Amino acid sequence: AEELYQELLKNASADSDRAHIYHQIGVMNYHQGKYQEAVKFYEKSLEIKRKTLPEDDASLAITYNNIGEVYRSMGEYSKALEFYEKSHKIFEISLPENHPNLASSYGCIGEVYSSMGEYSKALEYYEKYLE
């Protein structure tokens, strides 16, 4: 799969295509447990998206969320929280309040607080997740 993505990158003419391919390589690396590589490719995707998309585009939020997920998997909870919160802010602006991605965002932040032992904050986000 990696060779195919590299071939697609060579032939990608649009920034949006490159951003999407980098994002997908990040997903692949994450699922293979190659967390540092995943972050590297998500960051490449993010760099392109930040240059070409509005700051409140939901696509940015998804990439921020995925970076947060990688850091959470690595046990780097403060970094995970930083990226989950960036994602959440965009979702709050760009999505209706009953959208599943917004609810999921509350759950992710709650999980990080729980992992950090900050149970009252975790509970606050879990309750918002369930609303």
UniProtKB/TrEMBL annotation:
Ranges of the TPR repeats in the UniProt entry: 19-52, 61-94, 103-131
Repeat keyword on record: yes
Entries under SUPFAM superfamilies matching the protein: TPR-like
Key words, A-Z: Repeat, TPR repeat
Pfam families: TPR_12 (PF13424), TPR_8 (PF13181)
Keyword Repeat on entry: yes
InterPro entries: TPR-like_helical_dom_sf, TPR_rpt
PANTHER family tied to this protein: AAA+ ATPASE DOMAIN-CONTAINING PROTEIN, TETRATRICOPEPTIDE REPEAT PROTEIN (AFU_ORTHOLOGUE AFUA_6G03870)
Name of this protein: Kinesin light chain
